[in-house]
Amino acid sequence: MTVTRSFFALLIAALAVAQPATQGRASLVVQGSLNEPFGVAVAANDDTFIVEMGGHRVSVLDRAGTLRVFAGTGEAGFSGDGGPAIRAQFNSPHHLAFGPDGALYVADTQNFAVRRIELTTGVITRFAGTGVKGFAGDGGQAVDAQFGGIFAIAFHGSRLYICDLGNRRIRAVALESGVVTTVAGNGEKGVPVDGEPALTQPLVDPRAIAVDAVGSLYILEREGHALRVVQPNGRIRTVAGTGVSGFSGDGGPARLAMLNGPKHISIDDNDQSVLIADTENHVVRRYVPDNATILRVVGTGKPGAGGLGGPADRCELNRPHGAQVLPHSRAIYVSDSENHRIVRVDP
Predict the structure, then answer these.
(1) Which is higher by pLDDT, 298 or 64?
(2) Spatial contact of 113 and 150, defined as CB atoms under 8 Å apart
């Protein structure tokens, strides 16, 4: 007699998988002068830029190890376009990324805008969004469009992707024309059906995005406790998370693993795997598309600030909000936001 294993049997099997020994050691990069660091981006010269949500600013850690404020006055507001970025005001920025033009782009979340900083001049301008919350502008210029809360941005080819959480959509700006369109999400709240066109499907709450080398668009959902992907053919499917909050599944099938309020993703260009800041589980995890598994990279699963200098799986994190692989190594920078520090994990 042939026995078919049920979903629940598979789930139990996944939970029973022994957690693999985590490789790498964790050390402190910088702390103290940061106020809730979230996104991290590394420039071509290896200077590291850090967006501080609580500090309403962008700081830079140069190669000599000096940390200084690069943009923002430290007070919440919306000002400064056309002038020096150091005198501009941000409002709870969450993310940042370098564009193909070498400029730094900032997701100015509660100003409902993407802002562009020219590194050579330090001048800041508004690239997308009017600064007023809403939903408008598809088919027109991004600078005239309205967004509902920009929590993450990602570049791929000639497009800037924008995670428009408030409107439950992912939108994209064509860099040459400046035109904005929606590429995923119909504006409704719900779980998308696997295999359906992304434009026709609801999303729970898209919080973070990343695009891999072939153009697969990953969408992380905080309240949806899941990682989804829009394939180059435009169809969406869930690849990690059960949709129920919890902490399980390391070493097994990612689709059967439980996430808890994850808030950031990035692509590891070395192997095209996806790093997930599983924030409320106090860990960083890795989704491996080649075998559809999930692994723990750093964190004990409990909040704290201990373990620096030792194995990565014994390093305590307090609500990590970002994880980024350095471009010239396999080291990972983790934004340990409520410990107000950046932790480095070396292989």
Answers:
(1) 298
(2) yes
